[in-house]
Fold each of these.
Amino acid sequence: MITDHTQANDELKPIADFNKIARPDRLEGDSDTAYKQLSKLSGPKFDEEYIKVMVKDHDKTVRDFEDASHKVKNATLKVYIDKTLPVLRQHQQHAHELAKEGQTRKT
């Protein structure tokens, strides 16, 4: 996941720069809140909460990318979105599988 996210961000940087779109340089909002909460945890509790965050974030990101794919007018950005979306869907599926495994272990 880290490799895929790093690659996606590296591919997005020149598109954002060319279109003069500012990129955040720190976490904000829900991402910052989740980071702060997760940083206080360890062991199985960290794993459980991390998986919840990954499910929620990937569900939202996939929805946002699907929506943007239909609405975006910038051709370069559309190519980026359509290239990135299948990888995001794989991550989403993996996060859901991990969540399901965690629920199975609890029962």
Amino acid sequence: MAALGLAFGTGLLGGCASDSARDGRDPLAELRNAAAPEKYRSQQVSKAWNATEPGSASRAGTRKVFKDMLWGAGASGMVRVELAKALLSDTDPEGIEDTRQMLRLMLPREADRAVVTEICKSAAERGWNDFVPAMIRSYSRSVPALKNEEDRAERIAIKTLVPDKPVERVAYEVFLNPPASDTTSLPVDWAERTRVDAWDLLARLDTDGQLRASLIEEGDSNDELIMEMRAALRDLKTIPLTGEEIRWLRRLRQPRNLDNQRWWTEASSAIAKLPRERYGLLRMRHAEPVRWAAAHKPEWLEKSREELLAIVTQRIEPREHYYRSVRNEGPQSERLQEWGEKLKWGDLLSILVIDEALAEPTIVRRLFECALLDRKDETTEYGGTIRATETMSAPPTSVTGKPVPFVATLYPPRPGQRKNDETFIASDDMISSSDTALLHFHMHVQKAFNSSYAGPSDGDLDYANRLGRSCLVLTGISDGLMNVDFYQSNGAVIDMGEIKLLEK
């Protein structure tokens, strides 16, 4: 009973068995009653647990019910916290080990913050260092309500368990040495999931990648992925900053993909000629604009950041603009003059190359064709990619037989991925086919006159953050007229003005 008193407090335990007998109700049945108030249900947890003897068949049955409810979504965080406390109070070594394994599996994707906090606190108090990778995975998920990183329960627990290292270093070491699956308690792809999530956490804690770049360069690991990142640093002057960018890099490095190999050679050759002091550490999305500019606008690569900003301003400012009036939680401004000083050299070069693509009549016509298809489909938003045709092994040609400089490819979401007519979900086909693409785009064209939604939503900005891509959203303004907004992973949103459907 002493252990139970520590877990629940004496006030909860006093008279549990007699209370159950007195009211004649089965506390386990009351706990499982979804119609009962949550506070009442949470009070039944200790009663149900205390009504059984350790090692008995009834205790085993109660444990199974508790585990099923803790895993499921049929109870509130209040109830599930009490379930976790009860299971952690077990005095049977096999029982506590079973609970330990279950909580370690739960933590990475547990959504309820009260449950996350209880698991992290309990693991830290017990010195369960094997929970650190699971804590890193949980910590990788953004929680907008928690503005201060120091308040995260995962961070507090990690600092308790590994007091002699910064959390960033712990995350990097978890990335380097993720726990391998033993096929009995961990899924077979646990290590890969852990690596991606650890890198996503570092994307938030090390936003510019400078820390990770130095760790990669100074280390002596022969890990295949680290070697690929060193190649990216050497050839493209970049590293992937998010888990999705890791997947992007790995596809680019596949030796059997000849298009990607050729692109890598051309991009690295163009980037090698750039003065490092001009751009610092590039983002992965910058490599294709540099490659394209080296082939078609080499004078742009000679320009400073300030000179590129002046060119972008001269192009964009005179155009007609439409600003989103349906407010987001994130950045509100879409004006170039308010973002200009925060845009890096590679960002401005990207905008210029994208503007060149949008000046192509074939691209404009194709985008309006995509918009028409989207408007007819009320189950989802449509999107796709724009890429330079010279990166393709079989580039298309125009009806006149002339080469087409850019191509826009539509990738409608698969049936199972369609959420609603106001959400775009990129298909796996789209992601895997866009390694050398200039950008990702999607539509806000539920109606022809949709100017109040002219710009990315919070979900769209999250997409750009996760995938690390240059993105466009095209919004219906009127028949034959759409507004174009550029956005990227640092939250910058630039209204690039309108495009018109011209007569052929």
Amino acid sequence: MNAVSNPKTRSDWERLAAPLRPEGRAVIDGQLVGARSGRTFEKKTPIDGRVIAQVARCEDADVDAAVSSARAAFEDGRWRRTEPKERKRILLRFAELMRQDLEHLALLETLDVGKPIQNSLEVDVPKAIDCIGYYGEFADKLYDEIAPTGPNDLALIRREPLGVIAAIVPWNYPLIVTSWKLGPALLAGNSVVLKPAEQSPLTAIRLGELALQAGLPPGVLNVVPGFGEEAGRPLALHADVDMVTFTGSTEVGKLMLRYAGESNLKRVSLECGGKSPHVVLADADIDAAAEAIAWGIYYNAGETCNAGSRVLVQEAVRQPLLDAIRRVTAGITLGNPFDPTTQMGALIDEGHMRRVLGYIDTGVSEGAQLALGGKRALAETGGYYIEATILDEVRPEARVSREEIFGPVLAVTPFGREADGVVMANDSIYGLAAAVWTSDINAAHRVSGALRAGTVWVNSFDRSTISTPFGGFKQSGFGRDRSPHAIDKYTDLKTIWTAFK
């Protein structure tokens, strides 16, 4: 890609995007190939609704070819039997090639999903690079074990790769979530068949190309774009897949479990939906809470599984908190994602935009007060934008308080006693994340311990590093991405017991 150096203006990015013809073919057995049927689908950018690529519409036959390629690569050991220091070298080279391709990857990510270009440049691409490098560094640092036995026995406990991993990833953070799957799966010596969401295939295909350039052997990483029913379902049902790692909705996560049971009892790891609460006590720092709450729901236009979409606030400070959230939100710029000043971009597609608008209407019809926003924005662009929205006085049983909206919609509900706030926070099918806001260390300890969520922040929100595990309780799924703990799910333990005379 011919790129200007460090583009800083909207016109720079639009000039780069205009001639771009993103690669839309699948990556199977080390080759870029079209779907065997010859079919493609149109990929539209949510920025303005125009078609930017024709993408291979993979189906059963393509999935079979990809899985067969992955299985052959695993069985002949071209990757899993590579010396650890060589796997490390290739994965670090993969990360370096991503770094060299940063502007191109950022441009593809923004075109694909409509997020602000500054977020793609400064957050999504760098975090994906860091993730691949982080797990690459583990390659020559993992040890097997020797169990304590009698003097004439030797019991080795070895960590071995599972085999063929199906990685099915969502459209909201394609690069980041894909790297969370690829890093530990490849580090462990597995082969991977990656199925990106049909809404966001472009960076996945590019990663497939870069991995090959880095020296990953053909067949070790395959990419099959396509629709869920046509590519995702046969991949999850495939009898030669050893594990499915899935990030997406709880509804589809349940299908993954069903497919595993209907096929070969493959392992399943799920990171699903969320309805993360902020529990704001009366003694909280209201300005700090408002800043984190606003960014926690409006960042990425609310299309974040752990978005803090519920605010449960003690009645005494409800109005001051609401006023402070409005002030912070007034400074969050909604606009064209190629404008470096834009902080909130487009939603993924028209269907999802209408779904989010429908939830806002439902919230009002159920008695909530529309305290901010609530409408489509920038309709003249042809893109899919919604104003930052606050629904106040939301009843705990309302749909907007219980269901994942996945858009820039904040539901505010007052409560009385601390215990009431904890009960309301936990009264959810989800348990991905939560936060508590208080100046009382004793209350912080009580409430954070009582909240049922995979991550609980105290006087902060959405702070993390690659070294902390990410995942949820209840119907938010099970298994963890990120951190050394993620490696465990892509491996299994084998005991080799040797008896000596």
Amino acid sequence: MERIEKLKEFLQVSPEDSFIKHALALEYINLGDDKTARDLFEELLNREPGYTGSYYHLAKLLERIGQMKDAIEVYEKGMKETKRTGDNHAYNELRAAYEELTF
């Protein structure tokens, strides 16, 4: 809980910092608060679609809670974005997870 409070303090200073928001979402996943984590990931990706690491974690969260259609959509958006930015490593990770889910 202490890390969450520290990350929230950092966000007050830099509310648009995607790294902090991503880290906070991961902390909420660790606490089992999937709704808050999902909200943070979605807010981050709506504001900054090029923050590609969040696609993977959001899609995995959606898989875990049984929202497979939504997870597939997030993987697809992430693959499209990583192709656009030339981030082949992230693209390959997203594609592998996507294929594992869909095949």
